[in-house]
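Can't paste images in this forum, so I'm doing it all in text. The chain is below; anyone willing to post the predicted structure tokens underneath?
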Amino acid sequence: MRALNTFTITYKQKEYIATEIPHIFINKLDERIIIGSHSLNVALYDDERGYPDAEAQYIDEQIYTFIDDDFFNLSYNDFIKKAKKYLD
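Text version of the structure:
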């Protein structure tokens, strides 16, 4: 079973998990998108106050969407299935 390749994004000296996958939502498998963790989304943006700084906005603009942190423990195939179901 293929493992999900993840990496970390550092914001305010804290690391958050993310992954880069083919653009499965519009079936452009040659195009890549970054999926970030929900905890990163919470750190980057506040619904009442917006972005805390320009760095948060820059990071947020690089990420296609955010999903539950627990999904990043799944295999690649299971992650893709959950992401499609969760975001459809």
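Residues 6-87 form one domain. Residues 76-87 form the longest helix (12 residues).
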